[in-house]
Amino acid sequence: MDYIALLNLMQDYYQWLFTLLMLLLYPKVAKVTLRVFEKTVIGRDDVHRVKRARWLIKTALLIALLMTLMIMWGIELRGLLVVGSSIFALLGVGLFASWSLLSNVTSFFTLFVQNYCRIGLWVRVVDGANFVEGKIIDMTFLNVVLETLDGNRVLYPNNLFIVRPVIVLSKAPEKAAKKAEKKQLPIGVKR
After folding, report:
1. pLDDT confidence band for 84 (50 / 70 / 90)
2. How far apart are CA 77 and CA 70, in angstroms?
3. I need a surface site. Which of 78, 112, 133, 163 has the fewest CB within 10 A?
4. pLDDT band at 144 (very low <50, low <70, confident <90, very high)
């Protein structure tokens, strides 16, 4: 096969070759990026936050790869801007509509960025005259999972966790002593 035929073949199929090359390079680029990230944050944050940050980095790299491939294949980004602005509007509605699942997901990202409430801390979430105390054992897209002193798990919605006053306790709360019950004498028996 001569070089001119090879160049013609590459010219005809350059989009496919570039796509294949990008898909083959993505895992290596993600691995190198994550190594650099881990070297910069080593010992600074908790394990769960690092895991989430790793996931966000992989997702951002994948989105960048898809955008590059779309541009390469001639897909206009104007349509994507319309879709992106619609998603942004939905996220805005989600922040204010407390009944929405979208509100819990957007609140998750707010909690993710904040550093004062993280896994392993004891908190008291105040809701009027009531409160919930527990240790944060997980932060998911929809809920903050608290474990109470009794070992029960409370799934507290992210959007409520953000809008309610949250007291970060310096130590685990002590279990309240049970009040001695008054024993009542049977009817007809005098003291």
Report:
1. confident
2. 8
3. 78
4. very high
